[in-house]
Predict the structure of HTH luxR-type domain-containing protein.
Amino acid sequence: MDEAQGGGRRKLSAQELACLKLLVMGRTNKEMARDLGLSPATVASYLQSVYQKLGSQNRTHAIALAIRAGIIDPDAPAA
């Protein structure tokens, strides 16, 4: 899936979705950057965009909203 949409909100890009999936797995920004071959600043920028698009206030809220919107399946095996 290239993009995901949460309940009428703007679509997440593929990179935003990748960061969100790693966020759900408990990864830090530094770990996400390493896993995705990005800088930590770029990861932070993607996550800020995710928070804005989902209407979340923080990491935990973003995860909860993503699960409720069906963007993330909490029962899916980790990749």
Summary: The mean pLDDT is 88. The first helix runs from residue 14 to 24. The chain is about 55% helix and 0% strand. Helices lie at 14-24, 29-36, 40-54, 59-68.
